[in-house]
Write a structure and sequence with these properties.
This protein is an alpha+beta fold and about 375 residues long. The protein contains twelve helices and 22 strands. It is globular, with a radius of gyration of 28 Å.
Length: about 375
Amino acid sequence: MHFLTLVTVEVPKTIENEIQNQEIKQDITNIKKILTEYDDKKDGIFGNVMLKCQLKHLQGLQNTFARNVNDAVDDYLDPFGAETDNPKYIEFYDTTDDLKSEYETWNVTAIKMPNGTIVSERSDEFNDKYVVQDGKVLERCWGQLKTRKSTKRTKRMKVIKDYPINKIYKSFEEFLKTECQDSYNEKQKSYGYFCNCNAYYDWYVIGGRWPKCFLVKDSCMEYSIGTRDSEKEEYEAPEGYKWVVAARKKDIEWKVLANWKLECAKKSFKQLEEWFKNGVTTEDYYKVTEKGVECFGRLEYFKGETLKNYLKRNCMDKNGKYAFEPYAYFKGEEWFESHSSWTTKKDDVYDNAWQKELAEFIDGLSDETVLVCVDCHM
């Protein structure tokens, strides 16, 4: 899952490094030239993909401020990464009690073998050669084509659903040897693994799936466009402004952003209303139902809804102070997420507690503080 997360960092006033800027721009030019000559059949699709990823990354580092933001976010988020190797943030997670509970309570798919023994579907003895499919046992890789196939031997095997695992393994120690994926740690004298128990992401990029977070004036010099998922280099913005994913609080044009989002909401309502009247949508993931227009199981438009009600339901009627709503934000060493503030009502209206919480947080920031939109994956 991807989560739009607000990270705030302090970045000194930028002194532009034009030499490094030009070096990066030259690298971008070189990669673009290589990509125009790239032959997937000859050079391989993987290499093409890697070059495009490198290009997107470099495009977000073309000014000194963006590079400084990149470094500051790296430092800030290091304690919260699942893949960090920093010993300060890693601790041993003991799974012995969990494993004992699994041994005592687990029911698994078991197979009665031709010789009468009963084994777990997950055991190497079975899983290396066979697979359960539609309630039957098949050879996993049969013949020269290595296909799945029912054979005389597999027909003599019987699948048993919901079989107690402690009947397969007569002792907890035997269960651990065969089923346990965690290692035994001699120093800790228990089973488990080392991890960052305070992790909120396994990887992240600045911007990513959200290239249009903040609007700043075209004349603004301290900004970052981050690493964009899309190959688009520019996104249409109100005249005199540009889309960025990181900027100082004082440089973000909050009112312009709010007005833009309000106009987008009005256009969305008009489109949803038209789809409902026509009984058909023109975009994937949306579908018309008796109650309205649905997207991923949630009604985006209700039958008979007015524009006023639609805007109010989406907390757009008063043009939120900051017109920005990430899924979560970091404050010091704490992570705050929207689920802690949202409440679902019978008419599917979400209250604005989360917007108020965000507004209070942003209000408390210095005008010089840099707001960064981060695409966190977990």
